[in-house]
Amino acid sequence: MIVCVCNNISDREIRQAVEMGLSSMADLYKELGVGTCCGKCVSYAREVMHEHLEATAGAATTVTELRRTPADSVAA
Fold it and tell me: Global pTM?
């Protein structure tokens, strides 16, 4: 759903920005341009951001790690 019509910014883009570390309206303003024109989107953009921050705060961070067995310890 489009949150900021002036700059064509969706709720999905806001959630992705939160996942990349943005955590304030100032960040969204600077990085995405949310609220830089008419400003009517600011309250909803803030709501989307806070909901996603709360939803991801309790989630454990998944770390993907590649583990390789040393070549000399592999059974032939």
Answer: 0.73
